[in-house]
């Protein structure tokens, strides 16, 4: 089935990715043997960026699906659509990926209902096949096809978990927020601010991360730090930038907001000193 324009799924320019360990080599080895890979870790810590980078490096098309609880198996596999000539089958993203040999990234897969998740089972064992039952077709996955899933183990206790029968089809890599220096480097690069300011943002985030489980479900992500940095780079005063990008998104609780705001003022005392944008 080569009437699909594969190039639309290729990542043309190198995404900025700052390695934090051996993850590039490990993933490349897993891809070499077409091992399905699970990326575990908190939200906004670099999992999606890593997959984009690897897809670029391996020169594979990348098809990303943001999973949610309303998603059905048909949303992944495909469905018959009505058109003027009757009905017409339309492949879903998983089917397209299997046909063209893409990396299919199912982001936050735990959000999807378990009966949806099981459709990836025959693609993630020796069969590497996808049955399109409604269409009466059995798709053999392209040799380059690979499934990657991400999920945040932190949410599990509150919500749902992946079935063991799903989990045990994947090699897993754990991601976390990088060390202070590395995270500051990332934030400085992504937001276009100086390293010192980025470091202070990281320190604010670290305070919030210590509050995880003590009134916060999650600490401030690297993504939010980048947002704060971007506001600062647009000449928004650091305190206001932190309020908007770091404090408000995290909590609706007044006391917790005060606590986080106090952490902000510790590292960004009023009328900023040397924290101006480079
Ligand atoms: P996740 O998929 O884990 O929720 P993302 O990959 O979207 O998170 O990361 C959020 C943002 O954080 C990215 O857009 C990027 O700006 C930044 N980021 C985090 N880690 C890295 C890293 N190691 N290298 C480069 N950018 C990173």
TrEMBL record:
Pfam families: AAA_5, CbbQ_C. Residues 36-170 form the ATPase dynein-related AAA domain. Residues 183-266 form the CbbQ/NirQ/NorQ C-terminal domain. Keywords: ATP-binding, Nucleotide-binding. SUPFAM superfamilies: P-loop containing nucleoside triphosphate hydrolases. Belongs to the CbbQ/NirQ/NorQ/GpvN family. This is ATPase AAA. It comes from Thioclava indica. The lineage of its organism: Bacteria, Pseudomonadati, Pseudomonadota, Alphaproteobacteria, Rhodobacterales.
């Amino acid at each position: 089935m080569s009437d699909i324009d594969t190039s639309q799924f290729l990542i043309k320019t190198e995404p900025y990715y700052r390695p934090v360990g051996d993850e590039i080599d490990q993933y490349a080895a897993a891809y070499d043997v077409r091992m399905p890979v699970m990326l575990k870790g908190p939200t906004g810590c670099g999992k999606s960026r890593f997959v984009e980078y690897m897809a670029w490096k391996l020169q594979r098309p990348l098809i990303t699906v943001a999973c949610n609880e309303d998603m059905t198996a048909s949303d992944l596999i495909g469905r018959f659509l009505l058109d003027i000539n009757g009905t017409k089958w339309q492949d879903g993203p998983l089917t397209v990926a299997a046909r063209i040999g893409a990396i299919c990234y199912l982001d936050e897969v735990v959000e999807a209902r378990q009966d949806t998740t099981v459709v990836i089972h025959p693609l993630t064992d020796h069969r590497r096949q996808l049955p399109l039952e409604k269409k009466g077709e059995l798709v053999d996955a392209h040799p380059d096809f690979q499934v990657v899933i991400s999920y945040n183990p932190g949410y599990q206790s509150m919500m749902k978990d992946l079935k063991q029968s799903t989990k045990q089809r994947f090699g897993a890599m754990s991601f976390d927020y990088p060390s202070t220096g590395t995270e500051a480097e990332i934030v400085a690069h992504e937001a276009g601010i100086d390293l010192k300011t980025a470091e202070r943002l990281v320190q604010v985030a670290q305070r919030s991360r210590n509050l995880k489980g003590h009134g916060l479900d999650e600490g401030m992500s690297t993504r939010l730090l980048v947002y704060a940095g971007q506001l600062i780079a647009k000449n928004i005063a650091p305190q206001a930038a932190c309020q908007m990008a770091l404090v408000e998104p995290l909590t609706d609780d007044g006391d917790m907001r005060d606590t986080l705001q106090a952490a902000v003022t510790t590292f960004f005392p009023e009328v900023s000193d040397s924290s101006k944008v480079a």
